[in-house]
Specification:
The protein has a domain of 217 residues: 3-Layer(bba) Sandwich (FAD/NAD(P)-binding domain). It has 11 helices and 22 strands. Strands 1, 2, 8, 9, 10, 11, 20 and 21 form an 8-stranded mixed beta sheet that branches. Strands 5, 6, 13, 14, 15, 16, 17 and 18 form an 8-stranded mixed beta sheet that branches. Helix 1 packs parallel to helix 3 and helix 7 runs antiparallel to helix 8.
């Protein structure tokens, strides 16, 4: 027997969970296809900007994070080691201090905690959840999608919202072209005990091999994301904890001399990519299935939340106008509303990584002796203020879930 639904959501991660919460908020009916969840430990954190915070508040997800979120009030960016006074927000002439007049620019949130809160809320939803094992098979025909699992169960829908990550099986089944922007880098992720108050300051240093970023967490901790070339990342990952801490302090400066690891290290291959079609009639891609960006700006999940907000606006409008969810106007509107921000963030992250870091590009684009001067010039230009507001979110994307009312 074929089970039919107006909308089907596929994916197990944060994007899929928030997608379902948002559809419930708009009273849009859907069926969730959920792969049997495997228990795993995830020490990663997510950076939530101001616009995304408004959205999570509207969805009643933010208040439950009261003791699990840490405000970021300043972001110090440098290509040098940080000064001894960096924890007071002081920078030298070759560094930049981004801020929004002492207001929070963003918050650091632990992935597992946000996922737990979303799942708890979604467990109360009246929308059906179908658990499956193995790999799903997708057939796209006449703007409809038919989905079959390995046991032979079949679902059919006017619209599939694919939140199934950068290796999206739904995207591959539809034959949508993806542009891969080879990074040849891996990211080492862990949590650090700074053994001093971070004063809500985030730090980012551009190194020849890739950027290193620390996001404040709790009162004296930081979430580390260190991007390196594949070879050097493997070497760094395999160091002992003491050796890794020594390397870390060496690149950050003496202000971090008391820093120590407080979680296991994990390593991730960076595969920036974008699917510029964003889907097709009957299929919409959201989050990493649509665009996977370099982590240096901490914007990845915020882009996914903006995708969700716009998708819900498009579906809500189609429903009010009596249109099928497979109507071509939905994907057309989605592309129009998301293209500018997605392309802008990709350009910024790829550009900064190649301009100020990344050995294989830096010598060809910007001589190393000019890297510091480049950062210093940005600090003097009006663009610095614009970058601060862009980082806070909601500049390029207008959606009901981002509004104040």
């Amino acid at each position: 027997m074929i089970k039919k639904a107006p909308v089907i959501v596929v994916g197990n991660g944060l994007t899929a969970e928030v997608m379902c919460s948002a559809l419930d908020y708009f009273n849009l009916k859907y069926t969730r296809l959920l792969q049997e969840i495997q228990c795993s430990t995830d020490t990663r954190t997510t950076t939530i900007n101001v616009a995304s915070q408004k959205m999570l508040s509207r969805l009643k997800l933010w208040s439950s994070l009261e003791d699990e979120k840490t405000a970021i009030r300043n972001i110090l960016v440098s290509s040098n080691k940080f000064k001894t006074t960096c924890f007071e927000g002081e920078v030298d002439s070759y560094s930049i201090n981004f801020s929004l007049n002492k207001k929070p620019m963003a918050w650091t949130v632990q992935n597992n905690k946000l996922l737990e809160i979303c799942r708890k809320q979604n467990s109360k939803s009246l929308s059906p959840v179908e658990i499956y094992n193995g790999t799903l098979k997708y057939l796209f025909d006449n703007n409809n999608v038919t989905i079959t699992d390995k046991s032979g169960r079949v679902w059919q829908s006017d619209l599939l919202i694919a939140c199934d990550g950068s290796n999206s099986q739904a995207r591959k089944a539809a034959g949508l072209l993806t542009t891969n922007m080879a990074a040849n880098q891996k990211a080492i992720v862990t949590r650090l005990n700074l053994n001093r108050f971070h004063n809500h300051i985030a730090f980012q240093r551009f190194l020849p091999d890739g950027p290193i970023a620390l996001m404040p967490f709790k009162t004296q901790e930081a979430a580390l994301v260190w991007s390196l070339s594949n070879k050097n990342a493997d070497v760094m990952y395999n160091l002992s904890d003491a050796e890794f801490e020594e390397q870390l302090i060496n690149v950050l400066g003496v202000s971090f001399r008391d820093t120590s690891l407080c979680s296991n290290r994990t390593i991730w291959t960076l595969k920036p990519s974008v699917t510029r079609s964003m889907g097709q009639p009957g299929l919409i891609l959201a989050g990493d299935s649509n665009h996977s960006i370099h982590p240096l700006a901490g914007m990845g999940f915020n882009l996914a939340l903006a995708d969700i907000a716009v998708i819900c606006d498009c579906l809500d409008s189609a429903k009010k106008n009596g249109l099928s969810f497979s109507h071509e106007s939905i994907i057309a509107e989605y592309r129009t509303k998301r293209r500018v921000e997605v392309e802008a963030i990709i350009a910024v992250t790829q550009g900064l990584n190649r301009l100020f870091s990344y050995n294989s590009f830096q010598s060809k684009i910007l001589p190393s002796r000019l890297t510091n001067i480049g950062l210093g010039l940005i600090d003097l230009l009006p663009i610095k203020k614009q970058i601060s507001y862009i980082a806070s979110g909601g500049i390029f994307t207008s959606a009901k879930l981002f509004s104040d009312t």
